[in-house]
Amino acid sequence: MRWTEQDVTYHQKRVKEPVDNLFHKIQTPTKKSKYRNIRCQAKDGTNFASRLERDYYEQLLLRWKAGEVLYFVRQPSFDLEGGVKYRADFLVVRDRQDYGCDVEVIDCKGFETREGKNKLKQMKARYHIDVQLVRKV
Question: CB count, 10 Å around CB of 20?
Fold first, then answer.
C-alpha cells in the first residue's frame, strides 16, 4: 500500500505519531509454554524460568544477607545413570550452630512429571540426596 503525502499528514494528525514507528510496535503473538510458566527477571537482572523460582531466589538473597545462608549456587548439575543429567534450581549451604554445615538441593516445581519423579529417585539412589521440592501455595 502506498500512501500519499495527504494520507501521511492525516494519519499523523489523527495518531500524533510518526509513521516509521508504527511497524516497530507490531508484535507476533507469543506461544504459551508447555507448563504455563512465565519467564521473568529478578530485581538484580537475573533471568528465571518461572516466577516461583525468582521468588525463591529473592528469598535466598535475603537469608544470605541476614547470615542464615553461607552461600548458594544456581542450576547445579548432577550426572545420573545412562548419561542423564539432573539440573536442580539451587544448591544451598547453611551454617550449623554446633559444627559443619548443611547442604540442601532445592527444586522449584509448579508441575510434577514422570520424568522428574524418576530423576529424583535416581538422585536418592546414587547420591543419597533428598531433593526438597518448593511448590506454589
Answer: 7
